[in-house]
Amino acid sequence: MFSDGFKKRYTTIPFAIYKKGNTATATLYSHYHKEIELITVIEGSVDFYIGADLYEVKAGDVLVIPPYAVHHAFFHPNTYHECICFDASILWDESLKCSLEKGTITVSSAVKSNSEVGSLVYECARAAFNAYEKREPGWELEAIGNLSIIFGRLCASSFFVNSKNVDTEQDFVRNVLEYIKGHFDDQITSTTVAETLYINNSYFCRIFKKRFGCCFSEYLTNYRIEQAKMLLNMTDMSVSDIAIKCGFCGFSYFSKTFKEKVGSTPSKYRLKKAD
Length: 275
Known about the structure:
Layout (H helix, E strand, L loop, with lengths): L5 E2 L7 E8 L3 E6 L4 E8 L1 E6 L2 E6 L3 E4 L5 E5 L3 E8 L7 H9 L2 E3 L10 H17 L4 H18 L3 E3 L5 H16 L6 H7 L4 H12 L3 H19 L4 H7 L5 H12 L3 H9 L1
Helix pairs in contact: 2-3, 7-10
């Protein structure tokens, strides 16, 4: 579940980018994906959570998010950042790829601008991003080359560390996200999901709030709104059909909730995006 600015345009290599700026506080809701993600903060600051671990990322810093790592973020006002998502296979290091995908190694911290490799990682991340944006002949080699330099230097500096003991709560989060992804259009509740996972509902709600930073109903509403935004942007479905497809009980409730969350009605949001 990416932000509105995400441009997923895989071409000849599994590589995609997005960039985003905001004038107010913005939230990136919990999600995960199989690609490695590089977050480069150009201006401002972001509080990123990978699992339950907080990473404070400021201008000039770069955050590496491993494959399948559940993460969410709070972007402070006046923050501008760039993101690269890519499959680990383009690094050509099978050992590193397997270790990251299996979760046997993880990141030790954000790559800070004042660290020994900070400026190099920042410049290479921006160079890889710019290579994709321009897409001049040979851009793939330039992008892969810069990413290879980044990961080569990070490996040499002991940036990657062995993961702690198996995180059962991480499995919990992944199972919940998979269930929501497959059933958000149904009338589900925390009790529904807890029973599916064979756990006590009070325990479910406690762990959910701890890992997601909000209650289940709030997260589910936000997830449905994000799905509705995508359908409004990418399809000609009627607003009432979108409301039903995204699990809202009726058009009026959908329209009211959408306006509270997004700042405009679904119809006005669609018109604005079409301009």
